[in-house]
């Protein structure tokens, strides 16, 4: 056999061989085949690397012989010999795996130099300074990468020499200074290395190849692969190239350029270069590179050639290219080409442009833009220059968690009430230790939210993401003193009313004002065009989670095909309604009791005989009288009627805006105590009133409220009396809501519109709940007032409890649709409370790698996803007409959307601001499916 | 075809035809075949009933002709004719389905009488009173069952006549009085019935047969089947028999007798009879029956014959028989036989006796005793006479939920502290509105618990069941005023120190003392023998949930094969340890932070260079000094050391008792705040101290505690920072526990014992948690002090989160065993908080049939069971050596144990007091499996 399997000459490989040659190697081969000026060289395959590990860290048999033969071919090609004392060949040894892992693995340049060959190089080039500089670079890199010595003493030696000689940069160090540095390097290695520095170039090469193999399994490379879900067993290739020297004089240079701007996407050569330098000088930032246009003035021929090459590469690869080049004494070499990383704006523009130029198809354009990146384009951001200015001015106060994207400046308010009652034309930032559902009116009013506690799944974070408002949360270094109305951080104190700026993209908090830039998402923009292409491809429908008419309008702008989740609890929080809500909820248990007493007595009358029967009749009359005369029951009835009116108007407005499109309305889901004043403050108030002998009437009133709050208090409200459990135990609430939906529907139908409400029952765990509720609620729709056409409202259910998913076959026949409530399903499946997990342990789990991703952001396929698949499969089998959607926050996450596509759902629903992301991700899911099918 | 399919003569059927003939019919046939004196008759099959319903409520074709033919055969046999004016045949029409549904369906007696035939009957028997009495009975029953009239006016008419004539009972009504009653009956029917009373006997019979068919679907029958899980579509048979008359004079009688005592199981004829009566008189309680022995004196021949028949039936059926008989003018007839319902004591005794008599096999004896019934035998109960006396004295105060079986009398205490500090020789009943984990010391001390709030899955209920103490909870009519130390109910007030009695079987609460009877569960008793037979049969092992040495000893007495769940949190609640626990928990976050600062700094030192490196070294030294000098850290270390000592002693004691048997020790699981003083009371105290300007030092102390409590407060502790999440974030706690286990194991091994601890990690949701913990904890066991033999402690995990079950294939390779924590798994799968559900909505769900059974009592197979099956199947596939158990409360529930057997678990674990039930149920599960396999 022999080792030829393990090595490919550049002219033997091509761009399709990334698996075997790595990305860099495959592209070097491709460029060589295209006849571009690539230095001669070869690739040691990833298979050799895998074999190296299989052998427990030894070069596979025959590999070394083969390497030597291929180096001989390089010698032949360039007319220099490895280790030659007069005209030595130098090589670079570069890592490169199938997937880009920038900076994670090692590379060694200028290999082949030693005390003898450095003289040869000096002689052959007639440039002693260059030869010594190259040797200096080689030792520095080799010591770190191959000998695993600390970089610090070497850096110190160079820095000292610069200070001593007054050189402004490495490039200005003269041969004497370099000679002294090399002396110092030798000392350092003697002191610190257990193995001596190898002077034999072949020995250097062998060690370097092994060091690159080893760097595949370095801690940082392993962590990087973990994070980016790159398999650990594919290994890296090793590229060995003849060195070309950008540091061989002022007619030499090295640089990087892009075929189009990676920032704006504009079609122009974009990049920078550094004369008399090697690539690492550009990266280290020791010297400031020049704009690429400078090359046109300095060496117009080289520039022209570069433009041609880059243009050819872009056309060849049909993608924006990021090209590394070196000019050696006026001769251009290309050392690497790859697809360019780019901003979201550039991604959209280049994808569209290239499609219009005929370089790529519409599908390919859609595939090219990372869906998640669109979030950058959809909300205001700080003007970058203004933000940098603020940092220079020392106005950056703190760093929190980037909970909800966007940027905002406004005046500080420390409580929700103040915010809610402020003038409407002023921008406010609500600053709290943390937020609770009680703060909703203030949150709705504020431009952005800042909290010192809580994680990215805390109340503030979840609500603001839903609302599309910027938020920074869990900003622990911030002290929020709501009593003294004072915010302090980093030595600065800010009072209520002072201006503050928060960056929801980065989590930064600034004192004072920073100008914002508002995105252009008009219907005629570039993004809109890309999304229409995505819409033509995708199979999944995309709906919005929208609770208000404003939400609904915004959802339409962003392309919603309906509303997948209209939560009704938010409607209940409005200040003018809250009193009625509280009246209804606090009286519901008593009124329910009165009603069930009547039913009990009626049952007894029907069954008993004799005296018992008479007693029962008396009891029935008494119970009926009690209900009829109860002030509480009257207040309860009034509250229900008023809420029914409010809700009818709510639904009419939303259904009107969404005319002809489905609107899934979820009946009340929240635990009741969320609508009452906070239990803890009542507890404290009552204790103080009692201890201080305060106003007895005030005490009595507070005690009554406390009693109510206590009776609604639950140890674990998330697992408590909410969702359809409320609808079953206090039937009036759901009946009121369904009546309002039916009335709104009738009203609009009478106007000739096409309202399409769907009723969604939350928190179902068994088909029996739906049987009980549907019968009762469908009767309510029938009993609603006369309608020009019969009101038939489809009923469906949230699948958000594991048991609902596990018994989907029984639930499906009772409903028209399932909507997966993936937030709650994640909570129950993991046993994670969103309210608690983030702060207490979830961030620890993410940091320590116990969880690779936050399951509230990206749907967990192994657990939650498995339940969804069970429900999809068994639900559809039991009811082939079943419509299937998902309305948790995952509905706006690209990976989760891909899962929804694969699981066979009909639609996803997400907050309006994420609709463009969802539309694009859904199209990409379709394309990925086609690729798998092909 | 023809209708013969639908009817069987008694001599044509047999006892194996219950499906087709119902239980009663099949046994009547069997007795007829045995030649016993059964009145002639026939059975209309259940298939006829099903066909009746298929036809929408019409008799199947040909059935009526066939009925007439078969009645003719009865006429032939008894020599009387149906509707005959001189010697009329009367029949009874009796319901009877495959499964016993006592009293749920209808029966009509004395059918065939009208104004004409009643005279004939009077003539033929020479007894006008008897004829009129029979007619009176017939009308009364027929009006109710077939005409659906209310019973009341008829009852009233009879009562009036008795008053008017001074008759003490129905049997003393003379012919004139009866004649008047019949007049009155006719009036009532005219007034109230839309259809006239049918005088044609054939018409009566047709209506009666249909009425029996219809009674299959009556509301009460449907509800009964629902409750007992009897299918709704099997229908009832109808038995038509020639009437024999126990009311035909004082030489006639009717009665019920048992082949052995259904109360004690003693081998003696047991029962009662009523002279000159029909069966309904015995049931209605209008007259008091005589003991069966009286029959021996009155009619010795009849008695002898009865003894013989009953004895023959018992031998024939090989089970205790419940026989209905009638004596007509000195001639004995048997009307029904069936297996006798019996008390638990009688069930055990008769099963053993009959096996010893050779009537049944050991297996059959084991099958015969309902496992759940054993609970009656295992705890003290009130002496029945003493309890009845208390009721008569009006001492019954209230009725609550029977949360934990047993009965107790003791003095009232209103708080746990008082209870815990009381003299140890006094019986105390802890009376609270509800209990919390803080009350544990008092609960441990008290003889029984009574609460006014909470359901049968509330804290008080769960804890007492675990401890085997009686408890009545959710006793809503009780007012517990802990401030005034006063309990009031039903007009009675009781003060602290006064005596109260509670019955955990029935949920009743009494003022004052009631004598209790303590069960005999000695190793030589009847039950012990039955259980050894069960042990020979069962495949499932049975372990105990036991947290203390006392628990462990009791568990051994009751036959535990090991400890399946030893909870360590209970150990932490002991008063002398609580301060150390609080010290450890409140300092853990700060100390963890200090430790992670040190690690951070160490990492920075290793990576940084130059000035950054120096700064990092400074930071490292500072962090190390902070930890070394921290008073908090010292206190924390001391607390950990003390707790390690306590825990070592705990584990040593338990492992010593369980020498040679496995002891599964669960590491700390409870949310931390359970160990701190209640947050709410701290909140109130601090508010009051602030408002009243109280002692600043006290305020500061309380504020510090409040801060701690607040930082541990969680919105949903059940889904929060507990279980292995604690073990991962605060590693010292678990390391301390495992160290204590290893030390205890070493100590005992050194003594030559065979300790077998197993460590169980709670609340795992992903294999990564186990990988992280096992590595660290196994190192702790290795580092434990020298041991004569190496300490290898198996590690396992609770499967109590849906995600753990769904990813069991990944978890299984990391562990030696799974133990299903079915309590938490039920909570997560249903989204039910045990603490909240019972009171707020679960009882509503059970009452309204939304849930057929409480899923915390009987394992839900559709949801929770499915997850368990997934975990069993996929866990075993991934690790064939995996041991599988279940340690939730379901481990003591017979139906759930049957599921565990079917699911292929290796063992169940339950509280010590339920071990006998579990042993028996496990054997019955094996027998049921054998039956299915056969």
Describe it.
Two copies of one chain form a homodimer. Chain A is 50% helix and 16% strand. The first copy, chain A, is of the alpha/beta class and 934 residues long. An eight-stranded mixed sheet of chain A has the order 14-24-23-16-17-18-19-15. In chain A, strands 26-27-28-29-30-31-32-33 form an eight-stranded parallel beta barrel, surrounded by six helices. Chain A has a five-stranded antiparallel sheet with strand order 1-2-7-5-6. In chain A, strand 21 and strand 22 form a beta hairpin. In chain A, helix 13 (344-356) runs antiparallel to helix 14 (362-368), helix 13 (344-356) crosses helix 20 and helix 26 (679-692) runs antiparallel to helix 27 (696-712). Chain A is elongated and about 125 Å long. The mean pLDDT of chain A is 90. At the A-B interface, helix 6, helix 26, helix 28, helix 30 and helix 31 of A face helix 6, helix 26, helix 28, helix 30 and helix 31 of B.
Tags for this entry?
37 helices, eight-stranded parallel β-barrel, 934 residues, eight-stranded mixed beta sheet, homodimer, alpha/beta, 33 strands
